[in-house]
Records
---
Amino acid sequence: MTPTRSSRRLLYPCVTALALLLGCSSVSIQATRNPKYPGAILLPVAVVIFEGNTGPDYTLPLKGYLLREFQKRRMKLHVEVITGAEFNEDEVIGGLAQAANGLILIIPGGGTSYGGSLTQILYDVRVLLITKRPEVEVATVWRAKVDTTSGAYDFQIDARIEKFAEDLVRALINDRVVARPTK
């Protein structure tokens, strides 16, 4: 019996779910907070994802998932992806200083591959407070090392990136790094 198009549509999510259960995505966030800045950064806050060597297959889905997670909490943030050629941290901060009170920098820090599939992605996340006095001052408020792992299936990369976005936004809210909007 040959599967029909509709039966394949039903079968694919089941196979994907089973594969995800066998090699579940996990995210480990090890964060530290600068005790000099105990309060939350008020909105607006910008998010900059440095693409580096990972390419758009990793950064564009992450941008979408981060926007979704912040929107669920009624938080409007500007999320931007920049490539290696464009990345100059001082220029990024200077360009956003007038428009944002804070900046979340997400920088991929490598990964581990097995059999041609990326099984682990490491990220460095820094949250910077931008104060506007006569001159702009920047301070690191929160820093995290993020380790995302899963089985060796290529299609699990998307699930892993989605979980990273969910857990990162949850950690930023729970650690009171970024302020929730007032009602």
---
Amino acid sequence: MNTRAARPATPGFTLIEVLVALAIFAIMSGIAFRGLGAVVDARARITEDNRQWREIAMAFSMIERDVAVAANRPGRSRDDLIVPPFAGNATELGRDVAPLQFSRMGEGNAPVRRVGYRLQGSTLQLLAYPSIDAAPGEEAVVYPLLEGVQRFTTRFLDPNGNWLSRWPAAGEGQAARVGGPLPRAVEIRVALAGYGELTRVFALP
């Protein structure tokens, strides 16, 4: 007769319990992975939005800086045409047509010059001429300011408080070209893909 005490059975997991545990682990891992992916995607979107808003702010700041030192000084185009001190949506500027173009005073080390803003494709560009009076064949230096622009429009506030779609107003003739009044303010509207239309109004000196 064997008097050795019977040893208790070692507890363990059945195969079904192991498979159930693995299935639960796989499900929880998938949920965690999707959650992590959503966090990474959200962070990437926030980073891109921040970058885009910085570029928008810089573009408007550039326009505001130039408008703030607009000068009532007519210029001369590359086509030897007298151009008004401040022009918007004007068609008489030869090859230098831009929705917004004007003479500006020097600021700091910046020279007195002619500047313009236009939409080329989907890029808002700054045109910087070496001087107010362009020499024949002289080209503007082009600086890209903002990408993804769908529309760029301007309006101008006249001394009577009326908003005009162009400046100088139609019919003002040669007097406006050689030194007529500047508008009181300019309204800039920029339509951006995914951001809608942004409107800013800048007062002139």
---
Amino acid sequence: MHGKQHLAVIRASGHVLNLETLFFADEVRDPKKTLDDLPGTTGFSKGELAMATQLIEAMTEPWKPGAYRDTYTDRVNELIEAKRQGNEIQRADEAPQSTNVVDLLDALKRSLDTTPAAGTGRGRSSGRATTKSSSAKPPPKKTAAKKAAARKSSGSRTASKAS
């Protein structure tokens, strides 16, 4: 339920107490308002209904709650037990520092202002973007060292996200 407040009610059901979450008032639609954008009813042929029923029955299996684990709680319990036994606990890496957020529109405007206009050698003078001539040099190719560094950094990010 991760860091958000929830309304809940505890109800007695025989010899068991049930905890049920509720909605806040702003999460409940007003039944007095009409919803005009709802799709209309759709008719289905007997063949379509039979095929849908067959598909649902083929994918239906008994519920086995034991087949699912709360792995987060399992990891927390393992850490607690390791600390209780006096084992050294490795802290997770610090979260990466936030990047310098740049106003994209402002950066694009500045880059257009510094792009030389055709034939003037100065900043942009007309309202149209210019294209580079075919004699312009292509961008330099990445060196093998830069390619390897890019692969290594992208692979390490993937591995850290998976863990």
